[in-house]
């Protein structure tokens, strides 16, 4: 789940003495997409397993839906369910924060002072949103033209800004860190551009994409499509341009722009609205633990990219956004990682070799406007396009917009989180659409 560093610091500061000691066979940290999916898959293989999930939140969000909230397609209420309705029956829900990891002794300590001993640990703790790393952002966010779809609190404000925009500078940013869903900062930009044209304000609007990256997307074939999209729409792109400060009083955004000779120039741009993709990392309690990648500023859990097993603690596995897996951090990646992790964990428990391998698959449904979408499936390990459908993936398609809007949310709630296969459902949907 998404966490803020301020909340984590508050938790760490209030860490209490051990009040109770318990033991579970398998402990899962995180009740988001990765944690719930792994739990469901484990129970499907062996319903006698003793499983516990550590998750403080009472609400579970379909986070891929927040872009659609920002674009006015969904209401934020459509992206949330009660956590208790998603945790499988028979699983112990520990409604608390993990604050300390002690893998040498197979222990997790919680905010409330619970010491949990495990035989096996799955870290599915999600990503931390570091609003504080951009000066002035915490104070500015959610008002006077500053917004972000990386929170259900602010995504509705994005739509408010878009539909009430009267012209000027509309800036969309991408930070100098790995982030949840690398395409998200662009998706809202293309929907905003569509809406500005519909409202008749596009001719007096400058749409700008300021990205720390050197190209529009990490996979060349998809990047080429996006190059064409921004050129056709007259969207101005500034590469190697990293947001570092919001000056709310003057409505200015300050960036570090890295030039071709590697010198860095500070530039200031006026904004009338700005959508910020904030810097992100693993949660602080992981960063400061023995499970983190050594000498890595992001603090990801150090796992083998093929097996998802920890590189130093064999009874520990990690999945999803908080892991060190070198691929894009998306729910689609979790969908492919979870069966591999579960199979390898069960093999370990049976003293068998870990034979299942994850190939780096991920997917970023690249919304390029209302009713247009590139289903960017690829391996993050090889930057090679892939496709789950009998269609060329390197193309904008209306049917993929329908998939994003109607099918994938249903699949998430009714198939993925329940550990059920659904690839056949998607293929049937495609066949049905093309028969219409």
Automatic annotation (TrEMBL):
It holds the Pfam family Pyr_redox_2. GO terms for molecular function: oxidoreductase activity. InterPro entries: FAD/NAD-bd_sf (IPR036188), FAD/NAD-binding_dom (IPR023753), Sulphide_quinone_reductase (IPR015904). Its EC number is 1.-.-.-. Residues 25-144, 205-327 form the FAD/NAD(P)-binding domain. Coiled coil: none annotated. Gene3D superfamilies: FAD/NAD(P)-binding domain. Keywords: Oxidoreductase. The keyword Oxidoreductase applies. This is FAD/NAD(P)-binding oxidoreductase.
